[in-house]
């Protein structure tokens, strides 16, 4: 079973890139973030032509998430049920798989903007709601994967130049504490289960030749519950799409599970 996450920064703009990537990299589930389109504009037919199902939660101009899957999902949840939030940042479905169902959660976590912004406490509060809800989900779904753009670089090794990022969002200690709290639920950062190249990132700023200089951050993650983590055989960042013309500023992250 292959699971992937990709913040595509406008599905309308980058639909051809997503379809090309899926055709070349078949996966069982692809979690997309920042659709930036309303529900009625979601290009379902384009995915069904490739043999995929889809569940999505759209929003005009901002946010929006989707799960593209080979098999139809069940037990759909849109947004964190315990949080009254108009922003479309989370969707979850249950997919059939060898050995039992797998719960897939796709999340576009808040950015926070800056440490002195009112969006920063919103981000930390959002993570608290996420943590409590995932804890409950794990009781029902022991085989669970939480994929998405977390907008957190968990450690300095996930930052191209830690000194330059001191005092900024994505790397602050309260954010990293929120990330570790998810791990404390029994989740594993699948990328760090394996030896990885140094300076491995999933996001590069469009400005200042960020991608060319590899001045990036690793903020896109696939966290796996213990049963799935034990069956994870690989997790990689596919930097290829970041080199496309008019790319997303994020690259896909792909985890491979041996569920046989």
The average pLDDT value, as a whole number, equals: 98
Give the beta-strand count. 14
| Percentage of residues in strands | 25-35%
Q: Secondary-structure element sequence?
A: EHEHEEEEEHEHHEEEEHEE
**Number of helices, where a helix is a run of at least 4 consecutive DSSP H or I residues:** 6
Determine Rg (CA atoms, Å): 17 Å
Shape: globular
The description of the largest β-sheet is: 6 strands, mixed
What is the structural class? Answer: alpha+beta
Low-confidence stretches: none
How far apart lie the N and C ends? Answer: 9 Å
- Helical content stands at 10-25%
Main sheet: which strands, in order across? 3-4-2-1-14-13
Structure description:
With 260 residues, the protein is α+β, with helices and mostly antiparallel strands. It has six helices and 14 strands. The strands form three sheets. A six-stranded mixed β-sheet has the order 3-4-2-1-14-13. Strands 5-6-7-8-12-9 form a six-stranded mixed β-sheet. The mean pLDDT is 98.
List its traits.
alpha+beta, single chain, 24% helix, 14 strands, 6-stranded mixed β-sheet
Q: Can I get a quick summary?
A:
The protein has helices at 11-24, 44-48, 119-140, 162-165, 173-184, 226-230, and strands at 2-7, 29-33, 53-57, 65-69, 74-78, 90-95, 102-108, 144-149, 188-189, 203-204, 216-217, 220-224, 232-237, 253-257. It is α+β, with helices and mostly antiparallel strands and 260 residues long.
């Amino acid at each position: 079973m292959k699971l992937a996450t990709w913040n595509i920064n406008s599905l309308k703009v980058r639909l051809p890139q997503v379809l090309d990537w899926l055709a070349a990299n078949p996966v069982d589930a692809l979690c997309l973030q920042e659709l930036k389109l309303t529900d009625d504009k979601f290009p379902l037919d384009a995915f069904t032509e490739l043999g995929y199902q889809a569940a999505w939660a759209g929003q005009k101009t901002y946010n929006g998430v989707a799960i593209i899957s080979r098999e139809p999902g069940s037990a759909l949840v849109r947004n964190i049920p315990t949080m009254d939030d108009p922003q479309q940042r989370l969707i979850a479905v249950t997919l059939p798989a060898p050995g039992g169902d797998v719960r897939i959660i796709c999340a576009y976590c808040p950015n926070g903007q800056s440490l002195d912004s009112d969006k920063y406490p919103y981000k930390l509060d959002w993570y608290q709601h996420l943590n409590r809800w995932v804890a409950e989900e794990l009781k029902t779904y022991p085989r669970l994967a939480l994929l998405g753009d977390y907008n957190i670089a968990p450690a300095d090794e996930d930052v191209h130049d830690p000194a330059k990022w001191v005092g900024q969002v994505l790397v602050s200690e309260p954010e990293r504490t929120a990330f570790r709290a998810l791990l404390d639920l029994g989740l594993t950062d699948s990328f760090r289960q394996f030896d990885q190249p140094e300076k491995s990132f999933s996001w590069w700023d469009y400005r200042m030749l960020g991608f060319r200089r590899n001045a990036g951050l690793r903020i896109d993650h696939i966290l796996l519950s213990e049963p799935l983590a034990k069956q994870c055989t690989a997790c990689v960042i596919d930097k290829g799409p970041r080199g496309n013309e008019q790319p997303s500023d994020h690259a896909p992250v792909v985890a491979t599970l041996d569920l046989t």
